[in-house]
Amino acid sequence: TATGRHQRGLELIEKALDLGPGLVASHHIKGNLLLIAGEEHRAIASFGNALALCPDHMPSTLALATAYEQTGDFKSSARIFERVLAEHPEESSRCHLYMGYSLMKRYSWNAALGAFEKVSFKTQRGLSNGTAVYFRAICYEKLGRHEEAVAAFHEVIDRWPDATIGFARPERLVSSAYEGLGRLHLAAHELEKAVSILEEGAGRPAAEPDLLVRLAILYRDYSMPGKSALLLERAASASLGPLSADRIMTAYVLWSRLAREMADQAMLDRLTRSLQSRSQALADLNEFVYELDAMREGYALHEKRMAHVDERLAEITDKLDGLIGYVQNLPKRPS
């Protein structure tokens, strides 16, 4: 399973670090795996270890900024971006892409567009100009610029089918572009166009669970349960991991409801077999997510305690400052 591979990846990279603790790439890979898992604080420590060994390692520098972003520490993230732009102009495209993504998280859509317009990569796959085009499409959509958003989503589909979101996430953006077009057409009450574009996207062999579930819900709402069930079955069969778990579990729930509503015993049997075959993977993922939640709660409690300590230190400092001022202002005894 994806979760098992992820855990295995962490185990292997830990062994690699035991054998060679001075390998920058190993610390960076570990940070990426932890970032994917949502363990931002541990990821920050790993990227920090990589940078302690090689201060100019740009992948770890930008990944560290992303990790700070995900913890809500925007100031630390912004400082990293500013330093990279000043000291490494050759990395400006990558840096502007990360900065734009940061601005999107803060709902600064116009400012994010400005950052994405400065992106210019030479690659066709992975992190590329297609990534910036996709993010621009999202910004246009949020700003209500319907035609520009439609054009940008189409550009991702037609010109950049192998673009990915980057930031330690390897899934291609083409499915998300189809989903974006579907959203826009539905918002404009263009049902036939929405169904047509979502069906085109779902027809691709590597369609993501998000896209399949969105189209399935649309079919269900317009009284096409058979078509909906087929898509939900596909979505439920997707690779299971921390990033896809939510949609896959949604697919299972909706598929189960439809099968019962349709009184389709054959479908219920397939659903049961699917759940049974993936029971261990689901249990592993549940345990994995539970451990992450426990870690996050521990970090939150630690940060709360540290905030309380900081407040107490500030109070003590104020009192010391006051006492020092009082002592300094005492009348001096005549010598």
Task: Please provide a written account of the structure.
With 335 residues, the chain is mainly alpha-helical. The chain is built from 16 helices and two strands. The chain has a two-stranded antiparallel ribbon. α2 runs antiparallel to α3, α6 (92-105) packs antiparallel against α7 (109-116) and α11 packs antiparallel against α12 (209-221). The termini are far apart.
Structural class: mainly alpha
Beta-strand share of residues: under 5%
| Order of adjacent strands in the largest pleated sheet | 1-2
Distance between the termini: 84 Å
Number of helices: 16
Q: What would the principal axes of the Cα set say about the shape?
A: flat
pLDDT < 50 stretches: 288-296
In short:
With 335 residues, the protein is mainly alpha-helical. Helix content is 76%, strand content 2%. The chain has 16 helices and two strands.
